[in-house]
Structures are given as structure tokens and as C-alpha cells.
Automatic annotation (TrEMBL):
Pfam families with a match to the protein in the record: IGPS
Family listed: Belongs to the TrpC family.
Pathway annotation from the record: Amino-acid biosynthesis; L-tryptophan biosynthesis; L-tryptophan from chorismate: step 4/5
InterPro entries per the UniProt record, alphabetical: Aldolase_TIM, Indglycph_syn_Halo_TrpC, Indole-3-glycerol_P_synth, Indole-3-glycerol_P_synth_dom, Indole-3-GlycerolPSynthase_CS, RibuloseP-bd_barrel
Recorded catalytic activity of this chain's protein: 1-(2-carboxyphenylamino)-1-deoxy-D-ribulose 5-phosphate + H(+) = (1S,2R)-1-C-(indol-3-yl)glycerol 3-phosphate + CO2 + H2O
HAMAP family linked to this entry: IGPS_A
E.C. number(s) listed in UniProt: 4.1.1.48
Phylogenetic placement of the source organism: Archaea, Methanobacteriati, Methanobacteriota, Stenosarchaea group, Halobacteria
UniProt name for this protein: Indole-3-glycerol phosphate synthase
Organism in which the protein naturally occurs: Natronocalculus amylovorans
Domain of life, per lineage: Archaea
Keyword Lyase: yes
Top EC class of this enzyme: lyase
Keywords assigned: Amino-acid biosynthesis, Aromatic amino acid biosynthesis, Decarboxylase, Lyase, Tryptophan biosynthesis
Ranges for domain Indole-3-glycerol phosphate synthase: 30-247
Amino acid sequence: MNDTVASLAPAVQDILTSAEQRPGGAEPLSVRARSLDDAFEAVRSDGRIPVIAEVKPTSPTTEGTNEDDPVTLAKSMVAGGAAALSVLTEPDHFGGSIENLERIRAAVDVPVLRKDFILREDQLDLVESDVILLIARFLGDDLESLVAEAESRGFQPLVEVHTAAELEAALTAGATLIGVNNRDLGQLVVDLETFESIAPDVPDTVTLIAESGITTPKDATRMVSAGADGLLIGTAIMDGDPETNTRAFTTAPQTLDNEH
């Protein structure tokens, strides 16, 4: 873990402490990944917004736990038009599991993102997924090597950033799939302007995803108008009927009224 730990919110520090202690896989995986870019393109060609819908039983920023079967939730999201799914595998704070991801990936035909807090190379090797999350703030100087190791296994690494400096680090590491987290992990405050401030500096060759704080279809439109190629949405889809909620986001207008 790098020197930024002290600047993180206590809840995030607890998450990283748990992550440090979790084991990795015994040997490197070899993954045949479903293409996230192809999935996004298929949705865009249908005139809809690409959404990565997240199966998230709970989190430090939400109340209660969703006890519904994860596979049922995942199928509902796909039925609602999700281009891909995000599945939490962090067990201690998000109620996720490796088993959930395995079951969901076997049950759907869209790309699946493994969302966890990976700190070491061997933690890449716990379960096959199509996309794997790497958080720039947590990996520091190890980011470039983790991106390379993920790619060597067949994963599509999604590098998460929150600042211009982290974006620069992600690009230097060779990331071609970047997510901008609108939530500041230092204060857990969400601000959609975070994405809007960073997006202009992202090269066109990068697939850019807006993460966190997208709570309404209007927010979805705002992020797409600011340059998002896709959206990662969790709580706003999990709260209520996942199929209906997913459809509302994927069919939101793609430009703001004042841009007509």
C-alpha cells in the first residue's frame, strides 16, 4: 500500500486493511475475456447509453443489505439493457464473494467486471472475469506492473482515477480503459464535476467510464454529454426494480437540452 493511506476516510482504510490480509491465487489465470468495447458499441448502435450495472449487496455508504439472489439481480439488469455487469467480490464491507461472480458470469453473456480492492499481483488470480478493477490511488508505483500483469492474463484492466495526477499515472501505465470515480475516497463526498473536470484531458483512444453519484437519468445524460463512453451505476439500480431502473438509465437522452 502506498503513502496515501492516511489521507483516506476511515472506512476506506478499514477496507484496505482487510484487502491486505486476503490471500491471492496459487497460480496465474488465463482468461478468455468478453470485450467490453464491443458490448458498449452494440448498445450505442442501438441508440442507448452503455451501462455497467453493479450487483452490490451492501456498502459502507448505503444502509441495509440486499438479500436477493445475485444471479436473479444480474439477469434482471441484463434484461433491462445493461451492456455489462459489475460484481463485488469484497466480502467484509460489501457483502461480495468470488462465488457470486462465478455464478453470475456463468449465467449471463455480457462482460463482467470484478470490483474489488486489489493490492498485489496474486490477488488477480482468485477468479476469472472479463474486466478487473485497479484503483490508481491505492497502487501508486505498482500500477503499471499490475496493468501489465492483468493484461498478460487476458483481463481488461479498468483503471480508476479521481484526480488529474492519477489520470496521468493511468495513461503512463498504458491504461486504455479508465473510470473516473466521482467519489473522493478521502472524504467520501460525491461530486459529478469531478468527471467533467477530468474528461477533457482523456485521449479519444481511451474508453472512459463515469463512476459513482449517477442517481437519475438526468445524471446519466450529464455524464454522457461530458464525454463518458459508459456509466457504472450501483445503488440507483439496486434500489427498487433492477430491470426497470437499468432501462431508465440506458434509454436516457444522450445530450442536454441546452446543447440542442
